[in-house]
Amino acid sequence: xxxxxxxxxxQKHICVIGDIMLDHxxxxxxxxxxxxxxxxxxxxxxERYTLGGAGNVLENLNAFGGSASxxxxxxxxxxxxxxxxxxxxxxxxxxxxxxxxxxRTTVKTRVMASKHQLIRLDSEDKHDINEQVQQQILDQLAxxxxxxxxxxxxxxxxxxxxxxxxxxxxxxxxxxxxxxxVDSKVQDLxxxxxxxxxKPNKKEASLASGINIVDDDTLLRACKHxxxxxxxxxxxxxxxxxxxxxxxxxxxxxxxTRSLAVSDVTGAGDTVVSALTFGLVNGLTIEQASDFAxxxxxxxxxxxxxxxxxxxxxxxxxS
Length: 319
Known about the structure:
By secondary structure, this protein is of the alpha/beta class.
């Protein structure tokens, strides 16, 4: 059945805290080999910047029509200016990019020729942000927490979400009855103890639990381990072509994938965590929210690049 959300769904406010990035695409043609080295010469035709990382989570929330905001860290560079302009073009409740002169804004540059990626160039710093920057993030969250329904911690291991900052964010969320949702690439998930929901993918769940997930039994044991470490109410594991798994109240259930065609899985995890959060703050059960996320991911993986899905697109998929 199509998903019907309440009339005030657009008023539910979800704040994303984590590592923002810029995805930089250089498009061109490659018709010859360089005389200087055995590499193709790319004749550049166009360039494009899109928001990545926590920014892609934000884009997904915006596509659902909810109220969204972002708190992140950037450098003092040209890339930060581009990121601020992109954020300013979105209908956000607010955004805050804390400027840190000791780090670069993360940029991932992909050189594309005839729809093929020739190379990816990463410009980034991964060291932990200092206490002053952490405090600015906390101050921004505290100033807005009374108007926030959920916080998504989008952790790409670029140094924004330190153990100390995460502890204080989750504490603040619990004090104000705000849902805390985790999508993290860290292996030690104990730093996220107390969060309401943790969403690893299959590989991340294997690394976090030390259990090689090969069947439902190992999947169950991995979920139990993560649950013991985080004490989270929900554990949702994305399983790529096998759909997703939900661990709740000591029981494991699985949902098969809704995807009929896969063009690109880039950003699918961001779509899932966004959809899960949007569903939960709008009154869906964990099973219903997971089904919504499954349908959203099916739309996104059929597109190329970091894409998003609207509720209208998701509901159209039923027909």
